[in-house]
Specification:
Outer membrane efflux proteins (OEP)
């Protein structure tokens, strides 16, 4: 029992252990989460594609060197016969460059598309991070809830232990029957079993949070317990439409899907560019040496054979077996599909926000009802407890009232954390940072 309290207070008998705050848990998870890392890599990759698309405007430049060896048999016209094989060698040097002058604006369109894809990937990465943060929040609150369950179970055992001692004294004095004493003792055993179950659930929830954080399981792992009562603010009925309108402008998944649609639309323009002619400018410089030209030296031949060239190439598409038309049709269908994805994503967001608003209203109603019920149960228990102490009430009626109090406290605790999580989910859609 004491060890469990040490874990949550962050105090080990010999050393001070780290107590994790929610923000620290989220930041650690974002740093270690594989999906977050992969989304960041996707963004880095799209940035490289964007840089490459801009570089495609530049001319290409290539140099070449070739060395050739040839053998041939000389023909003697006086004898009409071929003589022995002779060899020769030649060396050629060349430099060539080419640049696209006009290609139906395809290069500029692809640059714009690559830039959009880069921005879209960054928003996708942000949406992955938000999802991880929300999962951490849920697991964090679950740990706090389980810890409160453990504390409640310990309080019940402490109270029942005192009552058992009192019942033992009264039984020894002959005031109550042994059956009354045994009923209290049985209740204590039940509560100890409840505590063991609560402790096991707490351990499981701790492991769940650590695994979501990608943190190796540590028996000394603990989380801080903030003042949650301050989060139970006065309830104001949330307006789903207002929150939805706000979320449309800030949620990364919406920006991501809209940019994806914009990028997809550019594929139509890229496909249509293949209907247009292509103009390419090219230039080159070449020279060479051949051993067959025995009258000139190596350097002389290289100097004499310098051949510069400049030209334009016009490529006009005439018939391409409907390939361009098919590509344009496929790209157009993809745009329609992307538009449907945008509508579906927005509809899904709207439904989630509407559900979150309903959940808040329902959670607040349950919390208010549980609070009133718990207050009534406490008042009834206090009266019953006083009667039991002075011997005006038997153990059966006392345990019935105590069970009612335990049940009301459990419902109140559950409704409390449910309300806090519901508030935080609503804040999530509003763009409010996840904090406690």
């Amino acid at each position: 029992m004491a060890c469990l309290l040490m874990v949550f207070s962050g105090i080990d008998g010999q050393a001070q252990n780290k107590t994790w705050k929610l923000e620290e848990c989220i930041n650690y998870a974002l740093d270690k989460n594989i999906q977050v890392k992969k989304s960041n890599l996707t963004s880095d990759q799209d940035q490289l594609y964007f840089n490459q698309a801009k570089s495609n405007r530049l001319p290409s430049l290539n140099a070449s060197v070739s060395e050739n060896l040839n053998w041939y048999k000389g023909f003697d016209s006086s004898t009409g016969q071929y003589g022995s094989s002779n060899g020769s060698n030649s060396t050629n040097y060349g430099v060539n460059t080419s640049v696209s002058v006009y290609n139906g604006d395809k290069l500029n369109t692809r640059i714009k598309q690559a830039e959009i894809n880069f921005q879209s990937s960054k928003y996708y990465s942000e949406s992955v991070k938000e999802s991880v943060g929300l999962n951490i929040l849920n697991a964090y609150l679950q740990v706090l809830y389980s810890y409160e369950n453990v504390k409640n179970a310990e309080k019940q055992i402490e109270s029942t232990t005192e009552q058992l001692a009192l019942a033992k004294e009264r039984m020894d004095l002959g005031v109550i029957a042994s059956s009354d004493y045994l009923q209290i003792k049985s209740e204590l055993s039940t509560e100890k079993s409840t505590l063991a179950t609560a402790q096991s659930q707490l351990a499981i929830d701790n492991v769940t949070l650590e695994q979501l954080m990608e943190l190796p399981v540590d028996p000394n792992f603990s989380v801080s317990s903030p003042n949650l009562e301050s989060l139970l603010v006065e309830f104001v009925q949330p307006n789903a439409q207002e929150i939805y309108n706000l979320a449309l402008g800030i949620k990364p998944e919406i920006k991501n899907i809209e940019l994806t649609k914009e990028s997809t639309a550019l594929n139509v323009k890229i496909a249509k560019a293949d209907y247009m002619p292509i103009i390419t400018a090219n230039a080159g410089l070449s020279t060479g040496y051949s051993s067959l030209n025995s009258g000139s030296g190596y350097a002389t031949q290289l100097n004499d054979k310098v051949n510069p060239s400049v030209g334009l190439t016009l490529s006009i598409p005439i018939f391409q077996k409907k390939q361009v038309k098919t590509n344009v049709g496929i790209a157009t269908i993809a745009v329609t599909n992307a538009e449907l994805d945008v509508i579906n994503t927005k509809n899904q967001l709207r439904k989630e926000i509407e559900q979150a608003c309903v959940n808040v209203a329902s959670a607040k109603s349950q919390y208010t009802a549980s609070l009133e019920q718990n207050q009534s149960s406490k008042e009834s228990y206090d009266v019953t407890n006083e009667k039991f102490k002075v011997g005006l009430l038997n153990s059966v009626d006392f345990l019935v009232q105590k069970t009612s109090l335990i049940t009301s406290e459990s419902k109140l605790l559950q409704s409390k954390f449910n309300l806090i999580f519901s508030y935080k989910v609503l804040d999530f859609y509003k763009g409010v940072p996840l904090t406690l």
